[in-house]
Amino acid sequence: MTITGGRVSPREFPTNRGGLCQKGWTSAELLTSPARLTTPLVRRDGVLEPATWDEALDLVAGKLAGLRAAHGPDAVGVFGGGGLTNEKSYLLGKFARVALGTSQIDYNGRFCMSSAAAGGMKAFGLDRGMPFPVTDLDRADAILLVGGNPAETMPPFVQHLKGAELIVVDPRRTATAEQATLHLRPAPGTDLALALGLLHTAVADGHLDREYLAARTTGFDGVWRIAATWWPERVERVTGVPVADQRAAVRMLAEADNAYVLTGRGTEQHASGADTVSAWINLALALGLPGRRGSGYGCLTGQGNGQGGREHGQKADQLPGYRRIDDPAAREHVMRVWGVDELPGPGRSAYELLDALGQPGGPRALLVFGSNPVVSAPRAGHVADRLAALDLLVVCDLVRSETAEVADVVLPITQWAEEGGTMTNLEGRVLLRQQAVAPPDGVRSDLEVLHGLAVRLGQPADRFPTEPEAVFEELRRASAGGAADYSGVTYERLRAGEALHWPVADRSTPRLFLDRFAHADGRARFVPVEHRGPAEPPDADYPLQATTGRVLQHYQSGAQTRLVAELNAAEPETYVEVHPDTATRAGLRDGDRAAVVSRRGRTVARVRCVPSMRIDLVFLPFHYAGEGRANLLTNPALDPTSRMPEFKVCAVRLETV
């Protein structure tokens, strides 16, 4: 890596080698956008009107204190985001549990990476999305990519896949699938059955790495008792993937010198998502891939700080350093760092928190940081109703998102180039983002917002620092000894250009598990899982299945990217991809406006006839607002382990508009 005048040469940075996608090269437009919020807004007589910072913070703190006094600390909830820096994530969790005393905190990362995290913890005893540097993929001979479309969601990443035989598992012929050597197209919601079938084929065709299993794993027999019943012909009947393609995929992985299994949201965002991840990890273990230099298993993160955002305490069940909040030793350690005598216990997961708003026993106030649940949450119409039932909704954002529009108080905050802080990328590497430009007058950072509210709620001023480096110094101590140990990471080392992958007590750990896995016995665990299928199968009233995803030009709820002229011109409205025959049967043609209807709501979208689509499937991007919200349709059925909603498949029908 080249450091010149304190700056890293962009083309030397290994993850993207200077490459940007369309979202990246247009991102600076938001810095000077007329849509930027630069003054707090307070709802008076039903209208959001400008207010001073003191007026807004005094109002919020007063109402929070009143609700806590009348109804207890859990009357206040906090909803965070996977795009917040490590420092913000850390201080947000501390603010909720110390300044508010509430257990009711979770974040939108629960909608993204939680199933992969649960699967990784079960198998390896540790969750780091990629337990190896991204650049290791450059030397892969074969890669199985399940439910990911990086050609549109993170294009610079695709350069690391170019040298391998690429096997893509996706019901759609995505831009990534177009580049694949082999494309497996399972019916929606049948990925787990396919993974069981590939494991069966690996054993039946003689590809099982028995030496690796004996030396480094435990529990294979329990998994094989299930996989033995998933012979290839049965898998083909359930998934639609031909037997020959099943065998070809396994052979490509098994015969490669260096091979990887990678998962993404498409295989994880299901009511059985954690089990499905376990099934893919089981396949990787059977082939002897994890913990071997040049091979392995990993998952692609979905948000800007998707890895770091889940490590430092903004999850309902978590304390800093990836510690469990119900672990007495973890609680004692964090209480010492924070200088407090008590902490609340676990709270509700993200959707359960949103569903409880305004309900008996649920929060009566909600503070939202870095999220837009009116668009991004499943069963979005119901979530909007729950937000409307609150006594107080406070939103911190840089634009008037759809959630900000229904808030009682909106606080304008800084964005990426206007603030410093660290983020942790998909390979567990801690990155320092330094301030590049001054924020507009009237805008404050999230750290300053938390400080201002905490002081008004009676906390000592020094307990909630406003400088990112000061917060990070405390984060280092709070994470010390935890699974995600940042104690050896310093701003000084990051400024010097060191590549630091956690855990870092002293040295960086770019490759985990080379010697042992994180379970006490050092072995990886096979996890027995069985195929269940979608929580909501199609029927006569709703004969199709809908799946959602991202497109190249937009990001997450679209609140920011829809304000960028170049991006919005390219994809200005929501659409629904359907097979031409499916459209014809519904009385629709290419370009028509159609209603996509589920048991939870109705989305209006422009029809795009795509001959490569399955005739039983429709696809909608989830970046749009109003009647174009794809998440008006989606099913909030939750995975029992990860509490991930089933975003990726629900029963729908098409209607003319």
UniProtKB/TrEMBL annotation:
Organism of derivation: Saccharothrix syringae
Q: Specify whether Metal-binding is a keyword of the entry.
A: yes
- Residue stretches making up the Molybdopterin oxidoreductase domain: 36-454
The record ties this protein, via InterPro entries, to: Asp_de-COase-like_dom_sf, MoPterin_dinucl-bd_dom, Mopterin_OxRdtase, Prok_molybdopt-oxidoreductase
Q: Does the keyword Iron apply?
A: yes
Record keywords: Iron, Iron-sulfur, Metal-binding
**Which Gene Ontology MF annotations are present?**
iron-sulfur cluster binding; metal ion binding; molybdopterin cofactor binding; NADH dehydrogenase activity
Q: Name one Pfam family in it.
A: Molybdopterin
The name this protein carries in UniProt is Nitrite reductase
Q: Which GO terms describe its cellular component?
A: membrane
Q: Which GO biological process categories is it annotated with?
A: respiratory electron transport chain
- Which residue range or ranges hold the Molybdopterin dinucleotide-binding domain? 544-651
Protein origin, superkingdom: Bacteria
Q: What's the source species' lineage?
A: Bacteria, Bacillati, Actinomycetota, Actinomycetes, Pseudonocardiales
